[in-house]
Specification:
This protein is α+β, with helices and mostly antiparallel strands and about 270 residues long. It contains six helices and ten strands. The protein folds into two domains: about 10-125, N-terminal domain of MutM-like DNA repair proteins (Alpha-Beta Barrel), CATH 3.20.190.10; about 140-255, Helicase, Ruva Protein, domain 3, CATH 1.10.8.50. The chain has helices at about 10-25, 125, 140-145, 155-160, 170-180, 195-210, and strands at about 30-35, 50-55, 55-60, 65-70, 75-80, 95-100, 105-110, 115, 240-245, 255. It has a four-stranded antiparallel beta sheet with strand order 1-6-7-5, covered by helices on one side. Strands 2-3-4-8 form a four-stranded antiparallel beta sheet, covered by helices on one side. The chain has a two-stranded antiparallel sheet with strand order 9-10. A hairpin with a 3-residue loop joins strand 3 and strand 4 (about 65-70). The chain is elongated and about 60 Å long.
């Protein structure tokens, strides 16, 4: 199972979209891959054919059957700069990849996964993933089927499994459970309408894919953007938000829920949100 942490799939989708617009159709005038495995690789002269997201994975395709696979996990990011402009997203030692054309420099910071692979071998990397919530081949029926494969599994854990749906992270799975009115510890088999969880997941990511401001409440004011995620009080009823860790380490995630608005089993209350 892929990491269920931030960033969410919509963040990766937007990053890929911006890189695609800036780079596709242009040849690289410089490349610098700063990881030991590919430190001697040189993509200079290759034409960028596409930049696509697959869940939380980003695939940058070049001429010559070559793909650069990157994954953000918790802290990675891509930034675009004009040639000669200072790079402001962090110190130089945090840069993992530089892809430069005559018009743009794409700089990848703190990327924990950086690997080159033949484009024809991409299925080896992302073939295990479930339907991509923001992909052109999104299939809600298949996502619902995969969600129900293990009816004993807690909903909160199943929603984070990228083999069920690709792109959902801790923020959105928390808010999906809230909008369903169930705790993340309810069994999948006890959901009244499992397909509703799939529809909500798609709706939230699709609504936020064009912006880095991830809003689930419809209210973009600071402190009002999420119903319970990283909140002290439920934005619907005002009750204190409960927290507890869900899942086994190291993949356990701090989980938020409203004891008043969400029905179902729950562990003992964890710490108060910071």
């Amino acid at each position: 199972m892929d990491d269920g942490g931030v960033p969410e799939g919509d963040t990766v989708w937007l990053a890929g979209r911006r890189l695609h617009r800036a780079l596709v159709g242009h040849a690289l005038v410089r490349s610098d891959i700063r990881v030991p495995r590919h430190a001697t690789a040189d993509l200079t002269g290759r034409t960028v054919l596409a930049v696509v997201s697959r869940g939380k994975h980003l695939l940058t395709r070049f001429s010559g059957d070559t793909t650069l696979h990157t994954h953000f996990r918790m802290e990675g990011s891509w930034h675009l700069y004009r040639p000669g402009d200072p790079w402001k997203a962090g110190p130089a030692w945090q840069v993992r990849v530089v892809l430069a054309t005559e018009e743009w420099e794409a700089v990848g910071y703190r990327l924990p996964v950086v690997e080159l692979t033949p484009t024809s071998r991409e299925p080896d990397i992302v073939g295990h993933l479930g339907p991509d919530l923001l992909g052109p081949d999104w299939d809600p029926g298949e996502a619902t089927r995969r969600l129900l494969v293990d009816p004993e599994r807690p909903v909160g854990e199943a929603l984070l499994d990228q083999r069920v749906m690709a792109g959902l992270g801790n923020l959105y799975r928390t808010e999906v459970c809230f909008l369903l009115g169930v705790t993340p510890w309810l069994r999948v088999g006890d959901l009244e309408e499992p397909a509703a969880a799939v529809r909500l997941a798609h709706r939230l990511l699709d609504a936020n894919k064009e912006t880095y401001d991830q809003v689930t409440t419809g209210d973009r004011r600071r402190g009002r953007r999420h119903w319970v995620f990283e909140q002290r009080q439920c934005q619907r009823c005002g009750a204190p938000v409960a927290t507890a860790w869900q899942g086994s380490q190291p993949r356990a995630r701090l989980t938020y829920w409203c004891p008043r608005c969400q029905a179902g089993p729950a562990p003992g209350r964890g710490r108060s949100p910071a």
